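Quick start: read one record
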Amino acid sequence: MLTAASDHTLMEAVARGQTLAFEQLSFRHLRTMLGVAHRILGNAAEAEEVVQEGFLRLWRQAPQWDPDGTGSVKTWLSRVITNLCLDRCRRRRDVPLEEAGEVQDTARDAFDDLGLQDRQKLVQSLLSGLPERQRVAVVLAYFEEMSGKEIAEAMELSAGAVESLLVRARRTLRDRAETMGIVWGENI
């Protein structure tokens, strides 16, 4: 019965303390939120921590959920996860250079020669070079396939600001890929 319930109905049940409803919401959105967090942070362990915190906030905020005044649960969770990731990224900046570790060179002669894991590392490397807000917009648009309106809600921006972020991000990604010998549009 819970599997057919809408997210709003499940949130009402979570507000009443029904753990099965929370489990169903978690099942529906966990993989997506882990993907968002991992692509923004570039670290699976940190992504899991952030998503756990996001779902804890969902549990705590359920009694205040207003299905008429709030967007979708997915959009709300995306906004929470994105903000938690950005907070974590900002804290990372204070790491002394000696503790930062080695940077791996992911450049290859041809994108087609790369295995799946190498491609994923390359994409993560390209994404990690973007400013935070551009990276979040790209992840939500191209990996989570959210609409411009959903991204605007999740990032608390206007639709025009989201489009501007995406235009600048695509330009930066194309330039970085070309410096690595990857022709944008042919190999990617």
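Residues 19-41 form the longest helix (23 residues).
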